[in-house]
Write a structure and sequence with these properties.
By secondary structure, the protein is α/β, with parallel strands linked by helices. Helices cover about 30% and strands about 25% of the residues. It is built from eleven helices and 24 strands. It binds flavin-adenine dinucleotide. Flavin-adenine dinucleotide binds next to α1, β2 and α10.
Length: about 375
């Protein structure tokens, strides 16, 4: 039994297989990082810049996370998956499997926009968030020097990642972070043609908009990026936005290794799975998290690519992996969102729970509490209820 990826989906599915299989199924988990990255916190670039390399808030050592699973962890890059021979290559190593769960997450989608991949930063991976935080710190230092000017940042994307990041950069206390009188950053969010916080509740959107404006973030709606060059972002209407740094938060797609599997794919190369989280026509091949596309059979809606959804899918997939190996009925997955909170600047957020809108400080506290509960449970090798 092999699990590819040790993010939210991978570690939770591993816990679930151990539980459903009563600890008798040997599990091998593969990831390029020997730690579980808390990706939902990667927008915290101000905090990351202040942490100066101390990364405990954003990652948990994998041996802690898998402490109770008796799983074998293999650190390395998954380079190929052969569905015929049932083998996974991790560098020079070949791992045979009977059942496979693909939990390889997602990567930035650049849609072929010239310069986007080359000249923008991203916070979808820890290495990207760390790099951006270091760059922002250098820019803040330069702006605090005599003759320095405010730093100009362009965030591309009007979804939750773009919003959280834009507000974080605009409200971070760069003067305290660099210990010099750096002025606040000037942040522009290019929302693009997809509406701001598309798919979220109207109350959440309204308050998020208000908080972003209070944070001083300038918003440019309804126009997409045409190209990105060194120091500037050009929009389709001809506007040229000067940018000391541009950050790409405009979308995700499946990693190449997932896209190249010879099975059915949805948007962005995501794996199509049935409501058992199994790939049709491939008994024993399961997938969970950002790497899948699944339409909920009850609501007819696409299950979102969120950590919350991954944590809900994983126990069902884990039980079904065991059912497939041992024989037995499979469980059907249906998705019920518990609630959503978007962080909008230091100590502020906007969210919705059961139709009720929460915003401002209470929303931020709620997000912090849920987030902390996940980090705490995960670091003790326990399954966490949500993020
Ligand atoms: C800034 C930000 C904030 C977010 N906030 C929220 C939030 O508040 N709530 C929420 O529900 N969701 C949030 N999300 C979305 C959430 O992070 C993702 O939906 C979640 O990480 C998906 O889990 P996953 O396990 O599928 O993928 P991941 O968590 O990305 O895990 C995939 C794993 O696969 C590994 N991997 C990938 N390719 C390879 C390879 N070839 N070889 C070896 N290892 C590989 C990676 O190292 C990684 O550990 C946020 C995302 C971002 C970027």
């Amino acid at each position: 039994m092999v699990v590819l990826g040790a993010g939210y989906a991978g570690v939770t599915v591993t816990h679930a297989i151990r539980r459903s299989g009563r600890g008798t199924i040997p599990i091998t988990v593969v990831d390029r990082h020997a730690s579980h990255i808390l990706r939902t916190r990667l927008y915290e670039v101000g905090r990351l810049a202040a942490a100066d390399g101390r990364d405990a808030r954003w990652s948990v050592p994998i041996d802690q996370v898998l402490a109770h699973d008796r799983a074998t962890f293999v650190a390395g890059e998954v380079t190929s998956v052969d569905l015929n021979t049932r083998e996974v290559s991790v560098g020079d190593r070949v791992l045979p499997y009977r059942s496979l769960v693909v939990c390889l997450g997602s990567v930035a989608a650049y849609y072929g926009i010239p310069g986007a991949a080359e000249y923008t930063e991203q916070v979808y991976r820890f290495s990207g968030a760390l790099r951006l935080s270091q760059r922002l710190r250098e820019l803040a230092r330069a702006s605090a020097a005599p003759g320095g000017r405010p730093v100009r940042i362009v965030v591309v994307g009007g979804g939750s990642t773009g919003t959280e990041l834009a507000a974080e950069i605009a409200t971070a206390r760069w003067d305290r972070i660099v210990g010099a009188p750096a002025p606040p950053f000037e942040v522009t969010q290019v929302v693009g043609s997809v509406p701001f916080l598309f798919g979220m509740a109207p109350g959440l959107i309204e308050h998020a908009r208000r908080l972003l404006a209070q944070a001083g973030v300038r918003s440019i709606p309804e126009v997409n990026v045409a190209r990105v060059g060194p120091g500037e972002v050009t929009l389709k209407d001809g506007q040229v936005l000067p940018a000391d740094a541009a950050v790409w938060c405009a979308g995700l797609e499946a990693p190449t290794i997932v896209r190249s599997l010879p099975v059915g794919h949805g948007k962005g190369g995501r794996l199509l799975v049935d409501d058992h989280l199994e790939v049709p026509g491939q008994p024993g091949l399961f997938a969970v998290g950002d790497a899948i596309e699944l339409k909920d059979s009850e609501t007819g809606l696409l299950v979102p690519a969120t950590a919350q959804a991954a944590l809900a899918e994983a126990p069902v997939a884990g039980a079904n992996v065991v059912a497939r190996l041992r024989g037995g009925p499979m469980r059907r997955f249906t998705y019920r969102e518990k609630g959503v909170v978007v962080s909008v600047g230091r100590g502020r957020g906007s969210g919705t729970f059961g139709g009720i809108t929460v915003w401002g400080r209470p929303a931020a506290l709620l997000k912090a509490a849920v987030d902390e509960e996940y980090a705490e449970a995960t670091s003790r090798g326990r399954r966490a209820p949500g993020v």
